[in-house]
Amino acid sequence: MHKQFLIISAFAAIALSAQAKVTLPHLISDNMILQQNSDARLWGTDEPDKIVNVSVSWSNDTYNTTTGKDGKWLVKVKTPAAGFTPYSITFDDGEKTVVNNVLSGEVWVCAGQSNMEMPVKGFFNCPLEDYNSVVLDAANSKGVHFVKIPSVMSETPLDDAKCEWKICDSNTVGDASATGYFFARLVSRTLNIPIGLVEANKGGTRVESWLNRENLKKYTKEDLNINHIKANFQGDYLYPLLWGNGTFNPILNYTVKGILFYQGCSNVGDPGDQYSQRLALLVKQWRESFGLGEIPFYFVQIAPYYYENNVNGDQGARLREQQLKAAGIISNSAIVGTNDAVYPYETQQIHPCQKKKVGERLGFLALNKQYGMKQLITDAPTYKSMKISNDTVYVQLENLAGGVSRYEDIKGFELAGTDKVFHKANTYYLWTKGLIITCPEVKKPVAVRYCFRNFEIGNLSNMGGLPLFPFRTDNW
Q1: Helix (H, G, I), strand (E, B) or coil at 83
Q2: Fewer Cβ close by (within 10 Å): the C or N end of the chain?
């Protein structure tokens, strides 16, 4: 009888031990990168009212917390300066769980739609330029780690997502966000520190797809009844609310440096400044949800594309205009231009192949504004003012960083008279007067536009090779 009791007790102890073991979210796992020099958050679940001890291999500090009635717990640990020394973290509630090969570095979120989601290996019929060379070179990028959050929908906010951290090398780089990877590769090699990418994105999504229920109800007219949502949209990628709940919410406890964002195609056609206001709202929501202060938000202007099967339409241009407005109203933000990041044959390519140019421009922003490399030229030229004299328009630009890329054969400018019909214009640059624009068909110009069409590639840039942002002087 005594022997039987001991056996039963032993099995009961084993069962209780198995039940009590700390459960970590998938983000807290081997190969993770923690934000350097921060109070990084670690969290998980266990039995209610259970003490969880956390120890880290980079210091003698230990941390402990007690789970709530819901079994959830969270601690903040002080992380070391960035470096390539692998560390471990031990979670102990009576039984130990160890996370290995943890690095300290800089962590950036890669958010948005398909042009951020597009991996190095590309999509079907959407290749990455110089793919093979990128794969071979990835052997030098082991300081870049990435984790892809599965793109899933949920009616309620999710706390976890089935994912795993990967170390970039020739075998894994194909799965990384191309835009994110080129950003991380540049920053990692320049600063000689690890860079972690948390990829939380979904192709085709609108800005409303990422807004939470509170903001959607307060600031939009989106119908949030789940049955109505399914009936109102042809593709689930356009659904409001659900993608943010399922794909972004699981990362909000993670301690990050900033957010990289490439989105907007699915909002083409939005009226007025609706998009710029809602993007500003989304940034405010994310910053409040992360609880890390005014973290940087760097985003990408959508590239030329034949929206509505019309190269010469201006729906895409109007969305780009809203994006530039958003950069002016979102604090601690900056935008990169892509007017030169497409080839003439890519009119119908929603995923242009030149992702290196895009990712590195995001990297230039971070290196300049976050990491002190002020010698980098990061702000692209923008329209400043216009003066009309007889049949000639004189345009002044800002952010030239010392000059323009060419004096002659400048393409992309158009003039219109009172009839509001635009014609291609002849443009050259004179440093004493700025851009000098004329057009034989427009004797009395009243307005000028630059690449203000769905698909039009200009050729004017500043001393840093950054393209002039498309613009218009009219409000037609």
Answers
A1: strand
A2: N
Per-residue pLDDT, 235:
94
- Confidence category of residue 82, pLDDT binned at 50, 70, 90: very high
Q: Say which residues have a Cβ less than 8 Å from residue 123's Cβ, sequence separation at least 6.
A: 114, 351
Regarding the domain with residue range 105-369, which homologous superfamily does it belong to in the CATH classification? SGNH hydrolase (3.40.50.1110)
Q: Report which residue type is found at 208.
A: E
Confidence of residue 20 (pLDDT cuts 50, 70, 90): low
Q: What is the rounded distance in angstroms from the CA atom of residue 248 to the CA atom of residue 227?
A: 22
Structure tokens at 268: 């083409």
- CA 310 to chain CA centroid, nearest Å: 28
- CA-nearest of 184, 105, 175, 173 to 138 is 173
pTM for this one? Answer: 0.94
Question: Which strands make up the sheet holding 434-438, listed edge to edge?
Answer: 382-389, 392-398, 434-438, 426-430
Residue 227 has pLDDT above 90, yes or no: yes
Backbone angles phi, psi at 459, to 5 degrees: -135, 25
CB neighbours (10 Å) of residue 114? 20
For the chain, what percentages of helix, strand and coil (3-state, to nearest 5) are there?
30, 25, 45
Per cent of the chain over pLDDT 90 is 95
Residue labelled with tokens 């609108």: 206
Kindly provide the residue ranges of all beta strands, DSSP E only, lying in 364-473, ordered along the sequence.
382-389, 392-398, 413-416, 422-424, 426-430, 434-438, 447-450, 471-472
Q: How far is CA 271 from CA 268, 288, 316, 319, 337, in A?
A: 9, 27, 12, 9, 22
Cβ atoms < 10 Å from Cβ of 411: 15
Residue positions counted in the chain: 476
Question: CB-side exposure of 240: number of CA atoms within 13 Å?
Answer: 24
What is the identity of the amino acid at 204? G
pLDDT exceeds 60 at position 19: no
Residue whose tokens read 């941390």: 63
Q: Is the dihedral of CA 209, 179, 311, 322 positive or negative?
A: positive
Nearest to 215 by CA among 169, 148, 162, 283: 283
Residue range 283-312: mean pLDDT, rounded: 97
pLDDT of the residue at 13: 38
pLDDT of res. 21: 86
